[in-house]
Amino acid sequence: MSVVCLVYLALFIHAHLSFARPIARISGPIQWRMIKNSTDGLGGGSCRTGNPIDDCWRCDPDWESNRKVLADCAIGFGRNAIGGRDGEYYIVTRDDDDPKDPSLGMLRHAVIQEEPLWIIFDHDMNIKLKEELMMNSYKTIDGRGFNVEISNGPCITIQSVTNIIIHGIYIHNCVQAGNAVVTDSPHHYQLRGISDGDGISVFGARDIWIDHCTLAKCHDGLIDIVYGSTAITISNNYMFQHNEVMLMGHNDDFVADKNMQVTIAFNYFGEGLVQRIPRCRHGYFHIVNNVYTGWEMYAIGGSANPTINSQGNVFIASDDESTKEVTKRESPDGSAEWKKWNWRSDGDLLLNGAEFTPSGNGTSGSYAKASSMVARPASLLTNIMPSAGVLNCNIGQKC
């Protein structure tokens, strides 16, 4: 692709930002929506975009009656996360919270139940939790059809559980809490220490899928995945206005994270992000078909020899000459060590002077454990990712 074409692509992406569906009681975040409709190059009248997740369910005008189809649409390392697919629907009717003894109709009451549940909402809600929301296994939180926020309090903790789907929630301004009793099942509660203040904290969990959420302005990370967690997909999310965006891996000495596999796909990393998009330790990370619109320090970082497979992303550096580099490595032995780590850029578009420093032996076989899906060409992102973040889903219409 010529330099002229790359410049036009960068300008096209920057020029076609628009406002998302309004968020009740607060100003809505900016949501990226490409002005090209999904029929470009795909045959007249087609609603398909080439994004395999969205093409699986968004063409259905009766999506509300077929909500659980979503559970069969995951891709990447978290593709086996079924959430509450095999359970009943639970309708959240209240936006208040009781960390120790939640009542029927509260979000907290729904997520602690033992049986699988597909959790939906009956009106717009801005839920301010009093303590971190401790989730039980086999749960889906599905915000489609309403403006659902979790904000201005502690947020979501996915700890030592499996099969969780979180879709269509605006999570922002999360804070620390703790030194309090918090229930985590219908018959058990525990004294929790101080939480980190993450938007979503994944700790010792597996088979997790976080899709089409909008996240911003939390105390610590927007999404942190640590302590041996694995089989995770983070897709179609919009993240903005935050410093340390995503941490993958507990610490450099925690070798259980060598089994971690995370897919980060079709996300839009927007304005005001500084670093850790993501920061990785030990494991295998497939960073594929995302759009980065600038970073104030670096985009992808790591320590303790993670494998980074960056494919088909669009990296648009800011105009600041000191922030052109996409990557950052932290190693006590410096480049003598990190030059052996397997980090590759395969088919990425590096725009406005963006630079990706690869390392390792460069063979395809070294990335087998860090490959989870087929990357689309980065030049097609204007067609295959028409929206990221919380969707405007109206009942009776295609979402």
TrEMBL record:
Cofactor: Ca(2+)
Cofactor notes: Binds 1 Ca(2+) ion. Required for its activity.
SMART domains (UniProt xref): Amb_all (SM00656)
Protein species of origin: Fraxinus pennsylvanica
EC numbers, comma separated: 4.2.2.2
Pathway(s) annotated for this protein in UniProt: Glycan metabolism; pectin degradation; 2-dehydro-3-deoxy-D-gluconate from pectin: step 2/5
SUPFAM superfamilies listed in its UniProt record: Pectin lyase-like
Catalytic activity field: Eliminative cleavage of (1->4)-alpha-D-galacturonan to give oligosaccharides with 4-deoxy-alpha-D-galact-4-enuronosyl groups at their non-reducing ends
Lyase keyword on record: yes
Claim: S-adenosyl-L-methionine is one of the keywords in the record: no
Origin: domain of life: Eukaryota
Keywords linked to the UniProt accession: Calcium, Lyase, Metal-binding, Signal
Pfam families with a match to the protein in the record: Pectate_lyase_4 (PF00544)
Signal peptide bounds: 1-20
Annotated protein name in UniProt: Pectate lyase
Entry GO MF terms: metal ion binding; pectate lyase activity
Domain Pectate lyase: 124-321
Family: Belongs to the polysaccharide lyase 1 family.
